[in-house]
Specification:
single chain; alpha/beta; Rossmann fold; 2 domains; four-stranded parallel beta sheet; 11 helices
Length: about 260
């Protein structure tokens, strides 16, 4: 699985919990973060190089743990995986929300790239035109989370700015893999009248279902997980421990 950096670790943590016998190989493209402000051409180049690296590590499927990368992966020409072998962070959420009947007013927050692509809005309304959707780019939340500013006294004034149009929303889709870290603060801000979707669990369930259906579940001894980064900093190591809830060993891996 891969991401531009930290956010995907929230999904990795959910996967490790749900699939303890599987080996996970994680690539964080920290040399090129943030992905949210990159052009589609640049993102496609990164995605192709990373997926080819994961193929060289004999990965049987990939998880695109990044909403911004998801906006280009299905159009990229040099990705050595079929669509069936790719689980990304948009389709499973769209399929779940479009088929449920409890929530009609949906909010979506994410990076400028994800929100600007309109992928969530278009896909949701195509499957369920009865949904009312409010989408907002919330780029300031990512650096706040990465720098550990998750106290209510810091976040709530930012929420005042970003969530002014979300008062009628019943469900919020955090379309950025960083945001599950602060789902409790968001729900409290709305006085629990709004539910934040727990996206990492949904992605993990999708991966588990694919492995079972394709009879690809690992049956032998688990191999050690690998953690690759295109650039390593002390700050990233510190923040990764916050996201994963444990210390792991990262290795620097440069891609062509």
């Amino acid at each position: 699985m891969f991401d531009s950096g930290l956010g995907g670790l929230t999904i990795l943590k959910a996967l490790q919990k749900m699939l303890p016998n599987e080996q996970f190989i994680y690539f964080g493209d920290t040399a090129h973060l943030p992905y949210g402000d990159k052009s589609a051409e640049a993102l496609t180049t990164y995605v192709e190089a990373i997926t080819q690296f994961l193929k060289s590590r004999n990965c049987k499927m990939i998880v695109v743990a990044c909403n911004s990368a998801t906006t280009v992966i299905h159009q990229a020409k040099n990705v050595p995986y079929t669509s069936a072998q790719i689980v990304e962070v948009i389709s499973p959420i769209v399929n779940l929300i479009a088929t449920q009947t409890k929530y009609k007013n949906i909010g979506i927050i994410g990076t400028r790239k994800t929100i600007g692509s309109g992928m969530f809005n278009v896909a949701l309304q195509k499957l369920n035109p009865n949904l009312t959707i409010v989408a907002k780019a919330t780029p300031l939340l990512v650096p706040l989370i990465e720098d550990g500013f998750m106290e209510e006294r810091v976040l709530f004034p930012v929420f005042d700015r970003y969530f002014a149009d979300f008062k009628a929303c019943e469900l919020l889709i955090p379309a950025c893999t960083h945001y599950p870290i602060i789902y409790q603060q968001i729900e409290k801000y709305f006085d629990y009248s709004l539910k934040v979707l727990h996206t990492p669990k949904i992605i993990a369930e999708t991966v588990a279902s694919y492995l079972k259906n394709e009879q690809l579940e690992h049956q032998g001894t688990k191999s050690q997980d690998e953690y690759h980064l295109s650039d390593i900093t002390d700050e990233f190591i510190r923040e990764a421990e916050l996201f994963l809830g444990q210390k792991v060993k990262f290795q620097k891996t440069l891609l062509n």
